[in-house]
Design brief:
heterodimer; A: 149 residues; alpha+beta; 26% strand; globular; B: alpha/beta; Transcription Regulator spoIIAA; 4 helices; 47% helix; 27% strand
């Protein structure tokens, strides 16, 4: 999925009629453990497959870590179900100029960092990055049944 | 703060560092402090016991990789991982590092294997 630059509102379109209730949490780096717990609890509430909950937590944590490490002090997670998929969007107010496909290739064998987006891409059915003057939104989609790796 | 517990035990010239709780971008600082202390006091032959670890992110993994490289290439030591549970080994497999880092099912297996290695080193 190619990163798009946009002047539009940083959040993706609001959930449509098929979307379930939205779970939201603002967080800092220190609150990442609480964010992981939050993600797990809400995923369970969505009746997500137990094996996939761990994967969702990994993906959300990686993107959330990038958000508070490189983006802004506070970031926000919004999560909901839509057409039986789980959508998690992580928003920070930092702007960046991503490569054409950030995390599109595997980390080099001696990588000591920068593996977050790659890992999220291996786990999720879709990863979409939008960045503009209002910040950056990374949207993760997980299909409830598919296992990609 | 992620709850992280660290304790160590000595086995000959090797140190087993028991890591339990959660390792992330914040708590990995404690692991770094602890590893530096262990290496300074007891040398660089280290087994990380991950049996009690519930979560590990790629920033913590990067830390592990950097110590593994340092200890194996410049300080005559090693860094092995033991007892990683499904939840923590998953990130190791996704990144491909499970095939590169020395990994053992449990501490006993890691100790047995590295003992052989130490003995072989002594004999040579």
């Amino acid at each position: 999925m190619v990163a798009t630059h946009s002047m539009a509102r940083p959040w993706q379109r609001p959930p449509n009629d098929s979307a379930g209730p939205m779970s939201e949490m603002k967080f800092t780096a220190e609150q990442l453990p609480i964010l992981r717990r939050f993600t797990e609890v809400h995923a369970r509430r969505y009746r997500m497959n137990e094996g996939l909950i761990g994967d969702l937590v990994i993906a959300v944590n990686e993107i959330a870590t990038n958000a508070v490490r490189h983006g802004s002090h506070y970031a926000e997670l919004r999560m909901w179900t839509e057409d039986s998929r789980v959508i998690a969007e992580i928003h920070d107010s930092g702007t960046w100029t991503p490569a054409d496909t950030p995390g599109g290739s595997p980390p080099p064998p001696d990588a000591e960092g920068g593996m977050g987006i790659w890992v999220a891409r291996q786990i999720c059915s879709a990863v979409n990055i939008r960045t503009g003057i209002n910040g950056t939104v990374v949207r993760l989609e997980l299909s409830p049944t598919a296992r990609y790796i | 703060m992620a709850a992280l517990e660290l304790s160590s035990s000595r086995h000959g010239d090797r140190t087993v560092l028991h890591v339990s709780g959660e390792l992330d971008i914040i708590s990995r600082a404690e692991l770094i402090t602890c590893l530096d202390k262990v290496i300074k006091q007891h040398g660089g032959k280290i087994i990380l016991d991950l049996t009690g670890l519930d979560f590990m992110d790629t920033s913590a993994l990067s830390t592990v990789v950097s110590y593994w490289k340092r200890l194996t290439t410049t300080e005559g030591g090693f860094l092995a991982l033991a007892g990683a549970q499904y939840r923590t080994s998953r990130v190791l497999w996704i990144t491909g590092l499970a095939q590169r880092l020395p990994m053992y099912d449990d501490v006993a297996a890691a100790l047995a294997d590295t003992e052989t290695r130490s003995a072989a080193d002594d004999a040579s």
